[in-house]
Amino acid sequence: MMASREPPRPRLLVVEDDPISLGFFQAALEPLAVRLDCADSVASALALARERRYDLYLIDAHLPDGCGSHLLAQLRELHPGTAAIAHTADAGAMSRLTAEGFPDVMIKPLSAIELQRHVRRGLQRQAVATTTASMSSRDWDEAAALAALNGQQHHLNALRELFLSELPGTRDAVDSALRKEDESALRGHLHRLQASCGFVGAARLANAVQLLRGDPASPAARHQFHDAVAALLH
User: Fold this and answer.
1) Which residues of 42-71 are buried (b: 16+ CB within 10 A; e: fewer)?
2) Who is most buried in 60, 82, 147, 154, counting CB within 10 A?
């Protein structure tokens, strides 16, 4: 009997020039099934990123040879789409770092449990984004939808017509819940929408909804959601 192969462990790049903070990251992330590479500057982080791909970047906002936001921009030129989390001791920098491209920001000091929660969320965001990217521009998964309806094309057409007629209202309800920060309403709208996407084979939108459910505050997740809706309504 052949032994089952373990799935590959996600690889993280931790960029931190303070040895005490770096030691905390290494110890706190040890319980997670991840591989860690460490860099203490913009230059060393870029050198590592040129050698291999990462599933998640943890980037200090202030480095000896530059700032974390500029490093993120250079890393994304090498590997677009890789998830990233900023970490900083300056709580006042959170909104600026978010605007400069970090979907998540950690304020130091933080607990090991908080760090692990941020990392798990970042890896989930990366996994969903990778799945979404692999779907490319495939708005409809015809085969899956027809299989669910035993090949009845006329039933699928009717369901899609109903789905598309209700989609603008659903989009507006999601936007309203996001503006009001109404987490309960948002969860309900997205849960129902994801189920509907599955019935009609709206593959791209289903992945965008999953991404938004995982990280409602992410500008990238909101953008992908609206792009997927617009593609279906075009």
Assistant:
1) bebbbeebeeeebbbbbbbbebeeebbbeb
2) 60
DSSP state of 150: T
No. of helices (H) and no. of strands (E), the chain: 10, 7
Contact 48, 39 (CB under 8 A): yes
Statement to judge: residues 65 and 179 lie in one domain: no
Q: Give the closest residue to 215 by CA, choosing from 204, 203, 224.
A: 224
Closest by CA position to 201, among listed 153, 129, 130, 131: 153
How far apart, in whole angstroms, are the C-alpha atoms of residue 125 and residue 85? Answer: 11
Q: Which domain holds residue 212?
A: 136-233
Per residue in 174-198, pLDDT tens?
Answer: 999 999 999 999 999 999 999 999 9
Tell whether 101 and 182 lie within a shared domain: no
Q: How many domains does the chain have?
A: 2
Closest CA to 205 of 224, 219, 178: 224
